[in-house]
Design a protein that fits this description.
This is Phenylacetate-coenzyme A ligase. One of its GO terms (biological process) is phenylacetate catabolic process. It holds the Pfam family AMP-binding_C_2. The chain has 410 residues and is α/β, with parallel strands linked by helices. The chain is built from eleven helices and 21 strands. The strands form five sheets. The protein has a nine-stranded mixed β-sheet. It has a four-stranded antiparallel β-sheet with strand order 10-11-12-15, with no helix packed on it. It has a four-stranded mixed β-sheet with strand order 20-19-18-21.
C-alpha cells in the first residue's frame, strides 16, 4: 500500500515526538536518527513492534502522555500470558468512536436502527467499542453483553432489534436457537456486524440464511483502538480500512519485507493520531492482503482481504503447514458437512495423530462423509486424518471466540 504524503508527515511528526521524551519508543528507537527518515522505504527499515514488547511494558510502559490526559484503559485478555494494557486519551476515544461510526455507515446502518450488542464489556474493547460508535451515529443501543440467550432473544423480539453485533460463534448460536424455537417471524434483524474471529463461507451462509440478514465483517484489535478500524461493505469484497487514522503494511511473516499489493502476508499497523499508546509498525499476526483497485461501492478507502488466519494459528504436521482457513475452505465444498469443526492433534507412540471432528448435516450419510473428508484432506492439504462426524450442535458454541484447533502434542 503506497504511503501518502499526509501519512508520511503524520508518522514523521509522531516519531519526532516519541523520541524526544522518556517513553517506550525513545528506548525502542534509540540510535536511530529520525531526521534521516525521508521516504516510505526509510520508514520500512524501522524495527517492528510486536506483542512481546507490549507485554514487557506492562502495566503502563506504553503510555506516551502524562497521567492527567489518560481517561481509560483497555486490555487484551491475557489468556496466553501477561496482559497488554492500552491507555487512551479523550481524543483517542473520540477518534475510535468516529471510525466505528464510519463502519456502521459503510454497512448502511443509520440512526433509525436499533443495535443489539452482545460482545463483552469491561477491559475488553469489543462491547464498549460497538456502543460508542452506535451512540456517535445516534442509533438506539441495546447493550446486552454476552450470555443469557433467553434474555437476548426476548429483548431482540420486544425491542425489535434491527442490527446484531456479535462474534460469529455467538451469532450462529442465536441463529440456531431462533430456528429451534420457531420464532423467526418475530425477529426484525436486517443486518449483522460480526467480528473478533475469522469464519468460513459456510458459517457465513448459515448465519445469514437462518437470521435473514446481510452480514458485515468488522476488523480491529485491542492494541490498535479495538474493533472498528475496518469493515466490509455491501459488495463483500474485502474490508475498507481507515487510512486517515492508520497506516497499513503487509509483510512476509518470515523475512519481514513488504510484499506487493495482492500478495498474502502479515498485517502491520502504524497509528497516525493515537496519543495514549501510539504504535509504530506493530505486527498483528493477522494474515491478509491488500486488494488492488477500486471497490464497486465507490469508497475512497482502500481494502484488505477478510482475515485469512493468523501466523500463530498455524500448526505443522509431518512438515505440512495447516491453517484453519484451509479446513474451512475444504468444508465449503463438502455438501454433507456443516460449518462447525474441531481439529485435534495428539502425539501417540511416537506419531502425530490428526482427528477432524465435524458436524454432519441432518440426513447426511456419515460413513460416506467420513470417506469424502478423508480423501479431500489428503488431496487438498496433504496429510491423512481420522474423521469423526457428530450431530449438529454437538460441538461447543461460544459467546466469545471459538477455539477450533487443539494441539495436544506438547
Amino acid at each position: 500500500m503506497k504511503m501518502t504524503e499526509t501519512q508520511f508527515n503524520l508518522i514523521k511528526a509522531q516519531l519526532k515526538k516519541l523520541t524526544s521524551q522518556p517513553c517506550f519508543y525513545q528506548r525502542k528507537l534509540e540510535g536511530i536518527n529520525i531526521d534521516q527518515i525521508q521516504s516510505q522505504e526509510d520508514f520500512e527499515a524501522l524495527p517492528f513492534t510486536w506483542k512481546g514488547d507490549l507485554r514487557e511494558a506492562y502495566p503502563l510502559g506504553l503510555q506516551a502522555v502524562p497521567d492527567e490526559e489518560i481517561v481509560r484503559i483497555h486490555s487484551s485478555s491475557g489468556t496466553t500470558g501477561t496482559p497488554v494494557i492500552i491507555p487512551y486519551t479523550r481524543q483517542d476515544v473520540e477518534d475510535w468512536a468516529e471510525m466505528f461510526k464510519r463502519c456502521y455507515e459503510t454497512a448502511g446502518i443509520t440512526n433509525l436502527d436499533r443495535i443489539q450488542i452482545t460482545p463483552g464489556y469491561g477491559l475488553w474493547t469489543a462491547g464498549i467499542g460497538f456502543q460508542n460508535g452506535a451512540e456517535r451515529l445516534g442509533a438506539m443501543v441495546i447493550p446486552m453483553g454476552p450470555g443469557n440467550t433467553d434474555k437476548q432473544l426476548r429483548m431482540m423480539m420486544d425491542m425489535k432489534s434491527t442490527v446484531l453485533c456479535a462474534t460469529s460463534s455467538y451469532a450462529l448460536l442465536l441463529a440456531e436457537e431462533i430456528a429451534k424455537r420457531g420464532i423467526g417471524n418475530r425477529i426484525h434483524l436486517r443486518k449483522g456486524v460480526i467480528g473478533s474471529e475469522r469464519w468460513g463461507e459456510k458459517m457465513r451462509n448459515r448465519i445469514a440464511n437462518e437470521l435473514g440478514v446481510q452480514l458485515y465483517d468488522i476488523y480491529g484489535l485491542t492494541e490498535v483502538y479495538g474493533p472498528g478500524i475496518g469493515i466490509s461493505c455491501d459488495h463483500a469484497c474485502g474490508m475498507h480500512v481507515w487510512t486517515d487514522y492508520l497506516y497499513f503494511e503487509v509483510v512476509d511473516p518470515k523475512t519481514g519485507k513488504n510484499v506487493p499489493d495482492g500478495e498474502i502476508g502479515e498485517l502491520v499497523i502504524t497509528t497516525l493520531h493515537k496519543q495514549g499508546a501510539p504504535l509504530i509498525r506493530y505486527r498483528t499476526h493477522d494474515l491478509t492482503r491488500v486488494i488492488p483497485g477500486e471497490c464497486p461501492c465507490g469508497s475512497p478507502f482502500p481494502r484488505i482481504d477478510t482475515i485469512l488466519g493468523r501466523t500463530d494459528d498455524m500448526v505443522k504436521v509431518k512438515g505440512v503447514n495447516i491453517f484453519p482457513s484451509q479446513i474451512e475452505e475444504l468444508l465449503t465444498g463438502i455438501e454433507g458437512a456443516s460449518s462447525e469443526y474441531q481439529f485435534m492433534l495428539d502425539h501417540v507412540n511416537g506419531k502425530d495423530i490428526c482427528t477432524l471432528f465435524v458436524e454432519a448435516n441432518d440426513g447426511a450419510n456419515r460413513y460416506e462423509l467420513e470417506i469424502e473428508l478423508q480423501n479431500a484432506f489428503k488431496s487438498k492439504i496433504g496429510i491423512s486424518v481420522n474423521v469423526k462426524p457428530v450431530s449438529i450442535g454437538e460441538l461447543p458454541r461460544s459467546e466469545k471466540k471459538s477455539t477450533r484447533v487443539f494441539d495436544n502434542r506438547y
